[in-house]
Specification:
Helices cover 18% and strands 30% of the residues. The longest helix is centred in the middle third of the chain and has 14 residues, at 164-177. The protein is α+β, with helices and mostly antiparallel strands. The strands form 3 sheets. Strands 4-5-3-2-16-13-11 form a 7-stranded mixed beta sheet. It has one domain: Endonuclease/exonuclease/phosphatase (Deoxyribonuclease I, Chain A, 4-Layer Sandwich). It has helices spanning 46-57, 70-79, 164-177, 202-211, 216-219, and strands at residues 8-10, 28-34, 62-66, 83-86, 101-104, 108-117, 137-145, 150-158, 188-194, 214-215, 222-223, 246-251, 256-261, 264-266, 269-270, 277-281.
Length: 282
């Protein structure tokens, strides 16, 4: 059960429906969160919000994180002892912002993992693609879910915020990487991340079509609000005009029971410039 955490307000109990507090064996929860890189000039500095960031995602089975610098990854690992993780930074030497994936070690076996660059040479560390101004990456892990007895492929990515060509090509790359490792029809593919594009833009539609993915926002049985965005800046007053650029897509024989962008506030502001988004599958 979630309790009161210092001066942090957990709005709508982190967006979790009451039924999810004691999740059944067949439920699977996935969260994605752009935690905002450690910038000392931000409204709320990292050392002031790292506990709340960890608490916002630690109850999910699998979590994709974006914009995590090495010190931030270490802080999350320390504060999420129930989870293992995989990922590395986007720079050639493995430093810089990472898109790590965390998973509950009591439920999942780690089979393999890879970090790939969104460029013409995805295996070249630090490579930059097309009209992107920075290297962009995707982290791919293959897990075995002991509760569901199935293989789960998770792709966590952060696309260029300036390059539409880079995003279109990233969609094609991600679609290719979402392919099966086996012929097992019960395998589940999960794609999450900050794609820096709204759903009507061609790069999002291209990814959905090429990879035959579905959007949890639209297929869910219940949402915590009728509609919501995910990019708010740190200021809660921007919630009404927030754009939805953070996604959880999937392919597999599952139903989406619940989807929510969680409002977590400390000292009157959000704990990141994005809200954590999560979905619960059955």
């Amino acid at each position: 059960m979630l309790g009161r955490i210092g001066s942090c307000t957990l709005v709508f109990c982190l967006g979790l429906p009451l039924a999810s507090i004691g999740q059944g064996l067949e439920e699977l929860s996935l969260g994605t969160f752009n935690i905002r890189y450690d910038n000392p000039l931000d409204t709320l500095e990292w050392h002031e919000r790292r506990n709340e960031v960890a608490t916002a995602v630690r109850y999910f089975d699998v979590i994709g994180i974006q914009e995590a610098l090495p010190n931030q990854v270490a802080d999350l690992q320390e504060r999420m002892p129930e989870h293992d993780s995989f990922g590395e930074g986007r720079n050639a030497d493995g430093t810089g912002e990472a898109c790590p994936i965390f998973w509950n070690r009591d439920r999942f076996d780690f089979l393999q993992g890879d970090v790939r660059w969104l460029s013409l040479d995805p295996t070249q560390p630090g490579s930059r693609g097309w009209d992107a101004d920075l290297p962009r990456i995707a982290t791919v892990v293959l897990l075995f879910d002991r509760k569901r007895q199935q293989t789960v492929r998770v792709i966590n990515t952060h696309w260029s915020h300036v390059g539409s060509e880079a995003r279109m090509n990233a969609a094609a790359l991600i679609a290719g990487w979402s392919g099966w490792e086996s012929d097992d029809s019960e395998d589940l593919v999960l794609v999450c991340g900050d794609l820096n594009a709204e759903e009507e833009q061609p790069e999002i539609q291209s990814l959905l079509e090429l990879a035959e993915l579905q959007d949890t926002y639209h297929t869910t049985k219940y949402r915590c609000r009728k509609s919501f965005g995910t990019f708010t800046t740190f200021l809660p007053e921007n919630l009404a005009n927030a754009t939805r650029i953070d996604y959880i897509f999937y392919r597999g024989d599952v139903d989406v029971e619940w989807a929510c962008a969680d409002e977590v506030i400390k000292f009157g502001v959000y704990i990141s410039d994005h809200m954590p988004y999560h979905a619960i599958f059955k």
